[in-house]
Amino acid sequence: MAVGQRSPLPARSTILNLVNLPASHPLIDGRTADSSLIRAYRGDRPSTTPVWFMRQAGRSLPEYRAIRAGSTMLDACLDPELSSEITLQPVRRHGVDAGIFFSDIVVPLKLAGIDVDIVPGRGPVLGAPIRSAADVASLRRLELDALAPIAEGVARAVAGLGTTPLIGFAGAPFTLAAYLVEGGPSKDHLRARTLMHADPATWDALLGWAADVTGAFLRAQVLAGASAVQLFDSWVGSLSVSDYESRVAPFSHQAIAHVTDLGIPVVHFGVGTGELLRSMYAIGVDVMGVDDRIPLDEASRRLGASVPLQGNINPAMLAAPWPVLEAHVRDVITRGRAATSHILNLGHGVPPETDPDVLTRIVQLAHAPSVVHA
Ligand code: 1CP
Fold first, then answer.
1. Chain centroid, CA 265 distance in Å
2. From 83's CA, which of 7, 31, 225, 295 has a CA 20 to 30 Å away?
3. What is the spatial distance between Cα 221 and Cα 110, in angstroms, rounded to a whole number?
4. Is residue 323 within 8 Å of residue 30, measured between CB atoms?
């Protein structure tokens, strides 16, 4: 093959095999199968561009700040009444085309017995980092019973959402390991990146454990009614393609293998992943989330036009004057037409200081008949 020429990526089936979902699941009973989100995730172009925002629930919403007063983040995640209500808040307010279950990537780690807390203003912090073979050997399985508050929160959210699909999510093994090995948020995830080479056996054991824990978290959300899932490998952009493919991708594949038999669309997202898009798609997902560092038409060129894309409004633009932001959103929608289908989103999460009315305005723009749809 000539230099620069790329081998085609394996085609994914757009026909969903939903035989293993319960009859009452919203994809089976008619509530969400024809929604614009699910159609776009399958590669169709619905009449309006579906839109939702990563971190749409959270501190940008006054109703979130009010309902969260007096509870810790993890307590809120494990209280089905709170997690379902917080999931519904941005859907009611903005009219987005999907809810994303309010939880956190470290919730399944907590449910598996890891001493982790979410510290306000900082993020997930562990009582003790997991770094040695002995640390990894002491990790416990995630028991199905422990996922009951997640299943109940999802079921309540799905009941409240009606015909709007719920997206379930989980952290990918590398991003989870970035917290487990470092013991908390870090800038460059250096200890984790060292461990994968310094002690590959411990690394493989840790990522294998994380894949099964996070896979079980995904499966519980889908069986309780989520119509799609997103695997967040937020920090994977710090890796080379060869480290990703040899030391990380097999475990991300192992994580999503927990839901493959359920036939729901799977989205894969990370930050700074322009060089990794093809390898991240090749683990066997349906849709690629793209951050704001590369334009969607370029992402589509790298992946092939048959891959549905999600993204990629620059979160920094949310605080710019509306005409500047509007021109940017229109540009994102135009570039998204390079792909077979496009789900409008941000290139990363909603910054907490965002004016929520700006998000509502973006939804109205995406749904407006004046926006050209292919
Ligand atoms: O009290 C609070 O409000 C704490 C802030 C907060 C919130 C609202 C955290 C702490 N997590 C969440 C919810 C959350 N986390 C969602 C909610 C659903 C929605 O989108 O509306 C989701 C999808 C996540 C996933 C998550 N947590 C990721 C992947 C997505 C991403 O942003 O890259 C990551 C990396 C985390 C870790 C985490 N949890 C919280 C923070 C501040 C962080 C990042 C810390 C760091 O910088 O390393």
1. 12
2. 31
3. 16
4. no
Question: Judging by DSSP bridges, how do beta strands 309-313 and 342-346 pair with one another?
Answer: parallel
59 lines ligand 1 (CB under 6 A): yes
Q: Which residue of 51, 55, 64 sits with most ligand 1 atoms within 8 Å of its CB, as the best mutation to test the pocket?
A: 55
**Cβ(267)–Cβ(229) below 8 Å:** yes
Domains of the chain and any CATH numbers: 26-372 (3.20.20.210)
Quote the CA–CA distance of 121 and 273 in Å, as a whole number: 25
Q: For residue 1, with 0-12 CB atoms within 10 Å meaning exposed, 13-18 middle and 19 or more buried, which class applies? A: exposed
Q: What angle do CA 314, 319, 320 make, to 5 degrees?
A: 85
233 within ligand 1 shell (Cβ under 6 A): no
Residue-wise pLDDT for 154-210, tens only, equals 999 999 999 999 999 999 999 999 999 999 999 999 999 999 999 999 999 999 999
pTM of the model: 0.94
Pinpoint the alpha helices (H) of the chain.
Answer: 36-41, 62-68, 73-77, 80-94, 107-111, 133-137, 148-161, 173-182, 190-198, 200-223, 241-247, 249-256, 277-281, 296-303, 322-336, 356-367
From CA 31, how far away is CA 348, in angstroms rounded? Answer: 28
